[in-house]
Amino acid sequence: EAQVTQNPRYLITVTGKKLTVTCSQNMNHEYMSWYRQDPGLGLRQIYYSMNVEVTDKGDVPEGYKVSRKEKRNFPLILESPSPNQTSLYFCASSLFSSGTGEGELFFGEGSRLTVL
Amino acid sequence: AQSVTQLDSHVSVSEGTPVLLRCNYSSSYSPSLFWYVQHPNKGLQLLLKYTSAATLVKGINGFEAEFKKSETSFHLTKPSAHMSDAAEYFCVVSEGGSYIPTFGRGTSLIVHP
């Protein structure tokens, strides 16, 4: 089954304690991205990746890091989480690499993060 | 630059009545436009997309949308609402060459029995 898998689905942590949210897709997509969803703001892109070792900032990259060492995996790293990073996070992948903007995004089921 | 505005944060309908979710966009280039649906505690799922082919686009579950360039609109409609349609809906714009799609703030569809 084609899917995007995120872990953990729920996490409560404390300020400053490094954490990683993993994302894996089995569709051989080149494009992967991370979003955060906050009430009344819709989804905002944090980082995206066009292919292995190619990443770039989205609209709200501050406080986050990513890496793309393998095509299927795109982890999101919070080096020193703060309470304003409490949010619902989504990973997505797409056959978006042509740059036409036409590709459908396939989303994971989300990771709800609370930073105390 | 691209932007998208969903004109209603909440829409409430009765089961069996028509649904209209409104979306206006702004784009410097020929855009691709999408509607996604998010059910509670789930990820987003594509309903339909417009990519410069037919202006009337049909999607899953009886939804459709019409691209109107003169009005810069891409409203989502369904002739008859079902209880299972209750969810959050997002309109998304993506310009050619852009890797950062812009999401609207979402419209919550409430369906009353």
Please characterize this protein's 3D structure.
- The complex is a heterodimer of chains A (116) and B (113).
- With 116 residues, chain A is mostly beta strands.
- In chain A, 0% of the residues lie in helices and 49% in strands.
- Chain A is built from no helices and eleven strands.
- Chain B has one domain (3-112): Immunoglobulin-like.
- Helix content of chain B is 0%, strand content 55%.
- Chain B is built from no helices and twelve strands.
- Chain B has strands at residues 3-6, 10-14, 19-21, 23-26, 31-38, 44-50, 56-58, 64-68, 73-78, 87-95, 102-103, 107-112.
- In chain B, strands 2, 5, 6, 10, 11 and 12 form a six-stranded mixed beta sheet that branches. In chain B, strands 3-9-8-7 form a four-stranded antiparallel beta sheet, with no helix packed on it.
- Chains A and B meet through strand 4 and strand 5 of A and strand 5, strand 6 and strand 10 of B.
How would you state the average pLDDT of chain A, rounded? 92
Q: Number of helical runs of chain B? A: 0
Radius of gyration of chain B: 13 Å
Percent of residues in beta strands of chain B: over 45%
Please give the radius of gyration of chain A in angstroms: 13 Å
Give the beta-strand count of chain B. Answer: 12
Largest sheet of chain B: 6 strands, mixed
- What's the number of helices of chain A? 0
Task: Name the poorly predicted regions of chain A.
Answer: none
Which class best fits the helix and strand makeup of chain B?
A: mainly beta
Query: What portion of residues of chain B is helical?
Result: under 10%
Helix content of chain A: under 10%
Overall pLDDT level of chain B: 92
Oligomer: heterodimer
What is the domain total for the residues of chain B? 1
Q: What is the CATH homologous superfamily assignment of chain B?
A: Immunoglobulins
Which word captures the global form of chain A?
Answer: globular
The helix/strand series of chain A, from N terminus to C terminus, equals EEEEEEEEEEE
